[in-house]
Amino acid sequence: MSSVSAAPVIQTAPQICRRCIIDERVPGAVFAADGTCSYCRIHDALCEAYPNDARGQQKLDELLERVRSDGKNKRYDCVVGVSGGTDSTYLLYYALSKGLRPLAVHFDNGWNSEIAVDNIRRSISALGVDLQTYVVDWEEFKDILRAHLKASIPWADAPTDLGLTAALYRIAQEEGVRHILVGNNFRSEGKQPTEWTYCDGRMIRAIVKRFGTTKLKSFPNLTISRLFWTAFVRRVRLVRPLYYIPYSKQDAKKLIEDKFGWRDYGGHHYESIFTRFVYSVYLPEKFGIDKRLISLSAQVRSGVMTREAALDEIARPPIEAERRESDMAYVAKKLGFSELEFKQILTAEPKSVFDYPSYHPMIRKFQRAARTAAKVLLPWTPMMFYEMDVRDSE
After folding, report:
1. Any residues with CB less than 8 A from the CB of 144 and at least 6 apart, and which?
2. Cα separation of 186 and 302, whole Å?
3. In sequence order, what DSSP letters do the residues of 22-45 get, joined into one string?
4. In a 3-state reduction of DSSP, which class is residue 272?
5. What is the spatial distance between Cα 91 and Cα 80, in angstroms, rounded to a whole number?
6. Burial level of 228, CB count in 10 A (0-12/13-18/19+)?
7. Residue 185: per-residue pLDDT
């Protein structure tokens, strides 16, 4: 009896958006009949809500006038978070150019690169603004990061994101300042899938309780109750100026290089060594996640990069082999992992952000109320709700 060979398995390339470079492996990516993806639809909805033409400039002028008015007769009228990166450095310069009196705030979690520290020093000195640094106890933050790596969730750097926001709120409240300027910009950064980067104060607390050995003391966790107190009772607001202007990251880099001697650190959020490790090693190798897909796609949609150039860029490794090895060794040693322990961390079964307690189920269940609350507290609609709208419609 003759044997019958099994038909060969034909592997097809993943579908890629015709407008950007998002492919079907990205969570929530759904393609319309014209070949464009759901992230393009999120982008278009955000552009409609936050125009960067004359309408956007008028809105921004109104926001900045409110900042000046609320800060009248105070030492500072706003707080600006600085990391040594492009966006925050440019935003600090922009605030001064608009006649604001900002207090620069840096969240020191122990992972600053030498270039980032020098960039902060140069810009602060040149602009003549005051700098306040919020320093987290290193042993406490070390335990928090170890816990998040042991939890095996994608966004292991969540404590930095949330800690920075909480520190800005706390210092603004202490200084009697009602406005925090932040340098987020969806046109150059995009909207990360919730599955990749979601975090909140409840989740951080749950992960530290399960995998950590210490209690949160110096770390400024941002719980719903803390957000309500600061944003509603004390009326501290977040303002995102870069949403309303034709902002080019390349032009911003050139400007701050010329004015401050700012130096490039080589990648998106690479001003932090741990963030660089998470972006370029931990996420791609453990989860198959390349966050460059999101930021490059955003730049393609915004017309600052061609689709072909973005495809060429994403085809390159996210980090050089030599730097990968040095970052791996540095992170393992700084966090107190043995070589075997660190290998086990990187090869452990990947978990989802939804495997741990968080506010997300409540936000999803009571979406309408949560959206209204966000518009009162922030006061604007977080990108998460635009993502929900697009996903729910498909």
Report:
1. 159, 204, 208, 212, 214, 216, 219
2. 10
3. -BTTSTT--B-TTS-BHHHHHHHH
4. strand
5. 8
6. middle
7. 95
**Whole-number Å distance between alpha carbons of 353 and 27:** 13
CB 78, CB 71: distance < 8 Å: yes
Could you tell me the strand order of the sheet in which 237-239 lies? 130-135, 102-108, 78-81, 179-181, 237-239
Confidence (pLDDT) at 270: 73
Closest CA to 324 of 361, 279, 263, 391: 279
Residue with tokens 């932090």: 272
- Specify the amino acid at residue 43: H
CB–CB of 92/118 below 8 Å? Answer: no
Yes or no: say if 285 and 346 are a contact pair by the CB < 8 Å rule.
yes
Predicted confidence at residue 267, as pLDDT, reads 66
**Residue 333 φ/ψ, nearest 5 degrees:** -65, -45
Please state the φ and ψ torsions of residue 226, each to the nearest 5 degrees: -65, -40
SS3 sequence of 126-168: HHCCEEEEEECCHHHHHHHHHHHHHHCCCCCCHHHHHHHHHHH
According to DSSP, the β-strands at 102-108 and 78-81 are parallel
Measured distance CA(272)–CA(113) in Å, rounded: 6
How many whole angstroms separate alpha carbon 242 and alpha carbon 183?
6
Tokens linked to 345? 């961390």
- How many residues are recorded in the chain? 394
* List of long-range contacts for 381-387, beta carbons under 8 Å, 24+ apart: 381/49, 383/42, 383/46, 383/186, 383/191, 384/194, 384/198, 386/42, 386/45, 386/46, 386/49, 386/191, 387/28, 387/42, 387/191, 387/193, 387/194
* In the chain, alpha helices (H): 38-49, 54-70, 86-97, 114-127, 138-151, 158-175, 186-189, 194-197, 201-211, 224-227, 249-260, 273-277, 292-301, 307-314, 321-334, 339-347, 360-365, 367-377, 383-392
Low-confidence ranges of the chain (pLDDT < 50): 1-10
Record the tokens describing residue 94, joined without a space.
């922009």
Cα–Cα distances (Å) from 71 to 67, 80, 330, in that order, read: 6, 14, 43
Domains and CATH numbers, the chain: 14-49+289-313 (no CATH), 50-288+320-358 (3.40.50.620)
Cα distance between residue 305 and residue 312, in whole Å: 11
H or E element at residue 239: strand 237-239
